[in-house]
Amino acid sequence: MGTGGKSPVDGSETAPDGVRAGVAIHGTTNCPVVAASTAHDGPITGVNWTHAGDTHTEEFRARDPDAVDRAEGVPAPASVVDLGDERVYRYDRPRDGECACRIIEELDCPIADARAEDGVLLLTLHLPDLERLRDVVSALDGTAERVEVRYLVQGAARGDGVSDRTLVDRGRLTDRQCEVLRTAYRMGYFERPRDANARDVADALDIAPSTFAEHLAAAQRKLLEETLAAN
Question: For the stretch 17-31, what's the b/e string if a residue is b when 16 or more beta carbons lie within 10 angstroms of its beta carbon?
Answer without folding.
Answer: bbbbbbbbbeebeeb
